[in-house]
C-alpha cells in the first residue's frame, strides 16, 4: 500500500535537518523504468514557489525519472537564490542517479519566505540515494509530512498492474488544489497522453473539490509516474478509473487529517442546472466560516447554509430560493426554503462525518465538495505556525 | 450623536419580548417631515428575508415615513407567513401613525428559519409608538443590537443641517453589505435622486468594503431618511460627503465590534491597475482564514498575504508576483516578492489596529478593505449561536 508497491520504483525518506524537530524531511522517488512517463498538475496560484517553476518546465516532455520532495521549507518568495536551489537539487539528484536534471521534479513544502537550507538538502540527497529501496514508500510518505498527523498512502490493484500513491497536506487545503504534494506511481504501460488525461480528469473531481480553509497554496503538485514494468497495457478508461480511485482516496484522507478539524463535511449539491453550478454552490457553502463554526458546535444551522447558497449569482447557478431543500444526515430540515423537520432530531456529535445535501430543483447535475469544521484547534494551530 | 439629533425625527426602543434575554428588541424611527424622502440599499443575497422583500417595494417611490426594526428574529426562510408578518408590521405601524403602510420600511435581524413572534412584535408596536421621542435615538440604537457589545451611532454636523446614524451588526459582516441594519437621518432638504445617489456611492466604499467573516447576510438594509426640517439645501457634493463620512464612521464601528475580534485590520492595496483590481486583491486577503489566524497570533506572516494575492486571476488584477511589496504597520517586510525587513521588529500585540499595505506596482489605483482577525472567541460565539 505505497508508491513502491508497483514494480519499477524505489523510494527513500531521510532526515536532512530542514525541520527543527529532527523528523524526516526529505523524500526521493525514482522510476527505474523501463518507461519513464510522467504527468503533473500544479497549483493555479500566480504566486508559486521556485520548485513549481522548475518542475512545470521539467514535465513538459512528459519524461520524469525522479521526484525529490522536502518538507521544512516551501522555497516560495525566495527570489533568484530560491530558483538556484531548486535547480541545484535537480542537478545533484540527476548526477547521483545518472539521469538528466530536466527529468527531475522538485517539490517543497513548509513556510513561505524563508530561504531554503540548500546545503542541508543537498547533503541529505546523498543519504536519500543511498537509502533508495523497493520498500521505501512508507518512509517517503513520512518524510513529506508537515502538520499531518499520519502519512497518507493508497494502492489500487488491477489485473496484472497496480497504482500506488502518497500525499501530504493538512492545512491550506482549497479548491484549485490543496496545499499538498501527491506522488502516484504505476507499473502499467501508458502513454503520456493517457497519463496526462487521466491525471487531469481525476484531480478535477477529487483534490480540486476539497476545501479545508479556502486558502489556495503556492506549491501544490500532483505527479504521476509510469514505469511500465508490469508489461500490462490497460484500456485508457480502466487506467483513468484507477487514477480517479487513488486520488479520491487520498483526497478523503487529506480532509480526514485537516488541521484541527473535528468533523469531515460532505456538501453535496443536487438538482443543479449543470455541474459548474453544483460546484459553485458547494464551494460557497464550504467556504462559510459561520457554517463551519456551527458544525463544530454540532449545530445543524441550516439558515447559514441557505444564506451561503444565496450568494451564488443567478448566472452561475439558476435556482428559486423558495424551492431550496436542505438535508443534514438524511433529515429534511429545510423544505421549499423554510423550516421542515425538527433539527433537534439530529445528533451531529455522534459521528465525525456530516453529510449535507442541497437540492436546487433546477436540473439534474450534482457535485460534492468536502470540507471541515472551523474549530478552536484550527485557530490555535494557525495562529502560532511561524512564530 | 444619534438619529434624533437632526430636526424632524422621533424614535423609540422598547422590549417586545422577541429576545429571550429580555433586552430591548424593537426600534421605531419616524420622519415627521415636512419632507419624507427615503432611499435604501439592500443585500445582494438571493436568499432574503420577508422584510427585505417588503421594504424593497416600499422604497421604490422614495417616500419613507417610518422604519420599524426588530432584533430577536430575522424572519428569513419563513415562507408566506413570514411575509404576512412583515406586511402586518407595516400595516399596524402605519395605522398607529396615520400613515400609509407602503411608506413603512421593516427590518429584522436574528436567527434564520425561525418563525417571527409576530404577536409580540405587534403588541410591542403600541409601546414603541407611545415611547416615540425626539430624544429616542439612543434607545432605538440599543434595541437593534444582537451580538453587538455597544450601540453604534454617529452625527455629522454641517452648516445649518446635520446627519445622524445608527447601525447594528457584529457577525456576518461581508462585502455586498454586512449583516447589518443602518438608519441614517437628515434634516437637510434633498431630493430623492440626490439622496439615492449619495447613499449608493457611500455604501459602495464603506459598508461594502468591510469583511469580517466572508459571510453575506440575507437581511442587510441601509435606509436614509430626509425630513428637510432644517430648511437648508446643501449642494449634492456636500451632502454626499456627509453621507460618506457617516457611513465610514459606522462601518469602522462595526468592524471594531465584530464578534470575537482582537485586531481590526486595514488591508490597503496600492499600485493597482484600477479600483476593481485593488478591491479584488484586498478581498482575497481579507477572506483568508490563515492570514486572519496569523494576525490573531500577532504573527506578521506575509507569506500568507502574498499567497492570497496570487489567487486573484490576472484578468481581474494584473501584476507581476516578483514585484509585490508588503508593508505591515509601515515596515517593508516583503519587497519585490521576497523577504526584506525582519518581521521580528513588529509588535502586533501593541495595538488593536493593524495596517497592511500591498503594492502591486501595476498602476495608480487603490482601495482599502477592513477585516478582523480570526480568534478563538469567533469560533466560540459562532459554534453556539442557535443552540
Please name the CATH topology of the largest domain in chain A.
Answer: L-amino peptidase D-ALA esterase/amidase
Largest sheet of chain A: 6 strands, mixed
Structure summary, number of beta strands of chain A: 15
Low-confidence stretches of chain A: 174-178
Number of domains of chain A: 2
- Kindly report the average pLDDT value of chain A: 92
Q: What is the helix tally of chain A?
A: 10
Indicate the multimeric state. homodimer
Task: Report the portion of residues of chain A in β strands.
Answer: 15-25%
What is the succession of H and E elements of chain A? Answer: EEEHEHEHHEEEHEHEHHHEEEEEH
User: Under the CATH scheme, which class of the largest domain in chain A?
Assistant: Alpha Beta
Coarse structural class of chain A? alpha+beta
Q: What Rg of chain A, in angstroms, do the CA atoms define?
A: 22 Å
Q: What's the CATH H-level homologous superfamily of the largest domain in chain A?
A: L-amino peptidase D-ALA esterase/amidase
Shape verdict of chain A: globular
Provide the helix percentage of chain A. Answer: 25-40%
Supply database-style keywords.
homodimer; 387 residues; alpha+beta; L-amino peptidase D-ALA esterase/amidase; Ubiquitin-like (UB roll); six-stranded mixed β-sheet; 15 strands; globular; arginine biosynthesis (chains A, B); L-glutamate N-acetyltransferase activity (chains A, B)
